[in-house]
Structure formats: structure tokens, C-alpha cells
Amino acid sequence: MTQTAPVKVNGKNRKDIRPGIEVEIVLKKDQRTGTRSRGVVKDILTRSSHHPHGIKVRLQDGRVGRVQKIIG
């Protein structure tokens, strides 16, 4: 029986993020402190398949930031 390493799902790969999922993001104004905000993805703004600081998204309430954690 072979074991595979658990797949790490974070906000750096565009394929892991879809409109309607709940995420934690860091807003531009909070980049220095790393304070996270939670919300539901409305739009994916980053065009590339990967971004080292997190995929940029717009939440349903209009806030824009980079995904740090995928909640659901």
C-alpha cells in the first residue's frame, strides 16, 4: 500500500479558488500586519495560474485582497 503526501491547498494556485467559496484574504492596507479578513469570493482577479503572495480576488462585499487560506 502506497501513501501519498497530503495535498496542500492554499491561496497560491488559481485552480483551487472558485467563486462562491469562503476564504481568508489580506487586504492591501493590512499587508504589513498580516491581518486577515474573511469573505466569499465573487471574482478572481489574478490571471496567472500561480502567485507567490496569493491569488488576488474580489469578495462579494467588494473588498479586494490576496487569498491566504481557503475555508470552504
Which class of secondary structure composition applies to the elements?
mainly beta
Round the mean pLDDT to the nearest integer and report it. Answer: 91
Report the uncertain regions.
none
Describe the largest sheet: 4 strands, antiparallel, barrel
Count of DSSP helices? 0
β-sheet strand percentage: 35-45%
Question: Secondary-structure element order, as H and E?
Answer: EEEE
Structural domain count: 1
Structure summary, number of beta strands:
4
First-last Cα distance: 30 Å
Helical coverage, percent range = under 10%
Judging from the principal axes of the Cα atoms, what is the shape? Answer: globular
Rg, please?
13 Å
- Main β-sheet, spatial strand arrangement: 1-2-3-4
Concise overview:
The protein is mainly beta and 72 residues long. A four-stranded antiparallel barrel has the order 1-2-3-4.
Structural description of this entry:
The protein is mainly β. The protein has one domain (14-70). The chain is 0% helix and 36% strand. It has no helices and four strands. It has strands at residues 22-27, 36-44, 56-59, 64-70. Strands 1-2-3-4 form a four-stranded antiparallel barrel. The chain starts with 21 loop residues before the first strand and ends with a strand.
Task: Detail the topology: elements first, then pairings.
Layout: E1 22-27, E2 36-44, E3 56-59, E4 64-70
Antiparallel strand pairs: 1-2, 1-4, 2-3, 3-4
